[in-house]
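User: Here's a chain of 319 residues. Predict its fold as tokens.
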Amino acid sequence: MALGTFIGVGRSLETALQRVELAERLGYESAYVTHIAARDSITLLMAYASRSERLKLGTGVTPIYSRTPATAAMSFATLDEFCGGRAVAGFGVSHRPAVEAWYGQTIDKPLQEAREYVEIVRAILRGEQPPQGDKFRSHFQFMGLEPRPDIPIYLAGLAPGMLRLAGEIADGVVLWLCNPEYIRNTVVPMVTEGRAKAGKPADGFDIVAAVPSAVTREPEEAKAQLRAELIPYFSLPFYRKMIELSGFEEDIAAFDAAGSDPSQISDRFITTLAAIGSAEEAAATVRSYADAGATSPCLGGIAKTDFDATLEALAGTAS
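Assistant: Prediction complete.
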């Protein structure tokens, strides 16, 4: 497996930049950033690129409704040029509350719209005339810049339909809250089906799985913190559907019945999903992701735990 990490920024950008340097020194393969209501994800990766030389740098993920395909192609081409060909363009449809309230857009046909977006971005990067979709249209072509035509494009996937689409049109898929069992039983078969539809081999397709991680002597405190962080996801339709498909319908029901009480998220859900505990226990969880088919397990921090120490403790997990 190619062990990577998600490096977010809390209050201090400098702290995050130092963590990027640490991840590179420790031999991590990649660093991804999420796109939240704070710093712009692609701009942030430019800062990460300035403090690294080897790490693959990707968005995990940028909502397709936050930028037009032409603007996204320009942004990632600029990042890729600056970092010497290390960029990964990660896209996703996001969720209706954010898309409507933040960007003034609507999610109407998510599978179709994701397909249109990716096809237009690919065409622009290759210097081809972009195909015209129903939602997204562009006649943009670069002038004075020839970007790397094969900048990898990844799609966020949760439900079977989007996972199949990722396998068909993307170079990888980015997962969040998808535990090893779901990866083995749903993600791998669906992306393989998509690859077959496109006449492409499954080998070489990157499955990036975010793994909440904390090497700690106080695992119960870390689990409680993670439960609190999961409240928004247990309230969003796309995630709720995936969690139910993962076999945790009782967790959703208990969470709802208790009025969105995070204590109702079961220990089984947390321990299956997260790498929490001693270095040996956490490493075993990370390896379970790889065994299930995740080609790039990526460690993510849990608030109020020492993520730098976790990165150091798990750095040799891939060897």
